[in-house]
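Example record

The entry below shows one chain as it appears in the dataset: sequence first, then structure tokens.
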Amino acid sequence: MKKLSEMKIHIIGIGGTGMAPIAIVLHEMGADVSGSDRAESVYTQDLRARGIRVSVPQCAGNIEDPDLVFYSSAIHDDNPELAEARKRGIQTLKRREFLGFMLSGRKTAAIAGSHGKSTTTSMLTWALTQLDLAPGFIVGSSVKDMGRNASAGSGGIFVIEADEYDNMFLGLDPYAAMLTKVEYDHPDCFPTPEIYMQAFQNFLDRTRPDGFVLLNADDPNQTSLSAPEERRVYYYGIESDADFKALNSKLSANGCYEFCFDDGNRSVPVSLSIPGKHNVYNALLVLSFCAVNGFDLRKAAEALSSFHGIGRRFEQVGEWNGIRFIDDYAHHPTEIKATLKAARDYFPAHRIRAIWQPHTYSRTKSLLPDFAASFADADEVIITDIYAARESYTDFGIEDVMRAVNHPCVRHLATNQEVTDYLVRSLQPGDVVITLSAGDANRISPMTLEALKHA
């Protein structure tokens, strides 16, 4: 097979959040990249601005003479471009099959887990960049301090968010296989918790012989996981015995956490600039990776202190008349709890008004008891209709959700517009509005801000 820099590569579904960053990396590596999607998006516009050819809509004529066609898991066999490529004998690969080929020759630092992948991957990327190691990276959200979510990099390390959905992370052969927190999710893909946990074990088993595994000692679900034979394994934690620990973690004056990183020999102070105790764990993983590799820990800690987060993770999107608007991608009970606890720490004297858009019927139904108990730190809970995403309505709906959530101030408002209208009528100075959504409820804050300015 040709080198990547000599190849013509066509990407079906290039405008998706998983495929667009790969296109950027390939383009920067010197490949001749083209692609297509069903509709225009901010990603297709950005790719064109970088000089990548993007066709909308998809049709057989978009397949010219590529050496390789690869496609996202959302593309079905009847896609006209995929069918055309196969008819002509052009090699076709799913994203999972392609990743290993793309990253061969690099030390892949892969961060997996049910929560915190994007933030931790971004933290590690930022730290390595500040250490002048020029990492390549792919993250599921834009890194604020870097203004992008992907780069080929010029150093030996490639940092990647390792997504478990559809077993995507099993296309990687990581030098460092690292886990944040693991909790059952994606019931549409993993029917039982046992199957879900086995996927993570399979991921760890792919660690390179010269590599290592980094596990969260405080996560009870990780006690069943192990590194493959002859691989190094390290543990990080706050409460349990571990190789790397965060000591004396506490809230600082800026509403974020500070702590001391300890590896048994050294203690390095860290002050974070993003809220939430869960980010202590994320920072701890990053510093543990740096410690294993012998990097400058003080410089890495300074980098984490200057890290300002990523898009759609406790992202402050606007303010009007003393009312703050925050958007977060939280769509799992643990993520909702962590986000609202971070808000309570950061805004202790403010009224917190949480807007939850349940994401997929299968997840909402499977985890409903945990969702119902997730809102203790909110003063008001507004629940929209369930965002179906890739699913269709079955025998479970919003009525079941409303019966389950036991909160002193909870209401159902079906649409983004209904929520916006209600907020415009009821918001008061000092309120904090937080949207919790992996769907389109992130539009609510901009819509409300616009309506308030014209009220």
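Notes for this example: Residues 278-292 form the longest helix (15 residues). The CA atoms of residues 49 and 227 lie 43 Å apart.
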